Amino acid sequence: MKQPTIVALRALLAADPPCNINERTALAEALGMSAKAEPMGESAPRVMPFDEVARVLACTQRNVHQLCRAGQLRKVVLPGRRLSRGVLAEDVRRLVTTCVRETPKTQEAQT
Known about the structure:
The protein is mainly alpha-helical. Helices cover 51% and strands 9% of the residues. The chain contains 6 helices and 3 strands.
């Protein structure tokens, strides 16, 4: 079922609710709108807000947006929205791990 249909059915149920909770639950299950939320678990991607990404990367939020524009990070835009909410945590982790430089042993010995 498409999201707009689910929203419309929820609005209809709110406007003309069934008599009791059992009827409402049965109707919601029949329409595939079970009230029980499924846990997202560990496999769900985490979205990091821009300010948190800036803290992790020790830069400004503007620099984070520039990294997105350059294709280093992917912005997350929620359905029906125009503005992005943040970036994927796995992209930030990948960026940090690929940008870490190993220190040559000669430099370590001098410090």
